[in-house]
C-alpha cells in the first residue's frame, strides 16, 4: 500500500490530461499558441506561489541545466505534436506518438538502474494492441511515411525523453522546484517559436481565453504536478505506459460531450489497453520459465 498515493496521483493526473483533446477539438486557437498558453498560464500560476511561500529552492547548476533542457524537450514535443496533427490525421499522430512507452522501456534498460521487468514488456504489447484496436486497424492501411509520420514518431521519442530526464531529476529535487523550472523554460521557448511563426498572441474570444486558462491550470499545472509526484515514486516505465490511459478517458469524454460514436471496437480496445497497464503494476515479476509443480 506504500505506493497508493503515487498511483492515485497518477490516475488523477491522467484524468486532468484527458480533458485536453476535448478542448483542442473546439479549435478556438491555433495549435502552437494553445501550447504556449498552456505552459505560460501554468507558469504564471505556479511561479508566484513558489516564490512567496519560499517553496522554490534552486538546485545545483547541473540539475538546473537538466531541468531547463527537460522543459525545452517537453515544449518541443508539444510543438511537433501540433504540427504532426495539422499535417496528417489526429489518429495517425496519436498512434505513433503513443509508442513512447517502448522508447521509455529501451531508455530505462540502457540508462536507469531499475531495468524493465518482463511484466512491462508484456503489458506494453497488450496495451499497444489495445491502442491499435481503439484507433482502428484501418489507420495502418492509411499510414503515410512522410514528414508528418517522422514528426509523430519524433514526438513520442521526445515524450519518452522527458519522462526519463524528469525521473532522474526528481530523485534530487522537489516537485515544485522542478515544475517551476520546466514551465518557465517551456514558456520562453514556445514564446520564441510562436513569435518566429508569427502566431497571434491576442484577439481571442472570452470563451477561447477561458479554454486556454483551463488548459494551463488543469491540463498542465494540476496534471503534471500530480504526474511528477507519481514519477518521483514509481518506475518511469509504469508511468509512461499508464499515460496511455488518457486515450481511453479522452474517447469516453468525446462520447459524452462531443457526441462521438462509441463502437464495440473502441470498447474492446480500451479493455486491452487498461489490461496492459494493469499487467505492469502486477507486484510479482512474471516468469516465462517453466516451474516444477
What does this entry look like structurally?
There is one protein chain. The protein contains 13 helices and no strands. The chain has helices at residues 4-24, 31-52, 61-87, 90-97, 100-111, 118-135, 138-141, 147-169, 175-196, 206-233, 236-242, 245-257, 264-280. It has one domain. 76% of the residues lie in helices and 0% in strands.
Any chance you could write out the topology, listing elements then pairs?
Blueprint: H1 4-24, H2 31-52, H3 61-87, H4 90-97, H5 100-111, H6 118-135, H7 138-141, H8 147-169, H9 175-196, H10 206-233, H11 236-242, H12 245-257, H13 264-280
Helix pairs in contact: 1-10, 1-12, 2-3, 2-9, 2-10, 3-4, 3-8, 3-9, 4-8, 5-8, 5-11, 6-13, 11-13, 12-13
Strand content is: under 5%
**What would you call the structural class?**
mainly alpha
Roughly what percent helix? Answer: over 70%
Radius of gyration: 19 Å
**What integer is the average pLDDT?**
77
The major sheet is characterized as: none
Query: Which ranges are low-confidence, i.e. pLDDT below 50, for 5 or more consecutive residues?
Result: 285-293
Number of strands: 0
Shape: globular
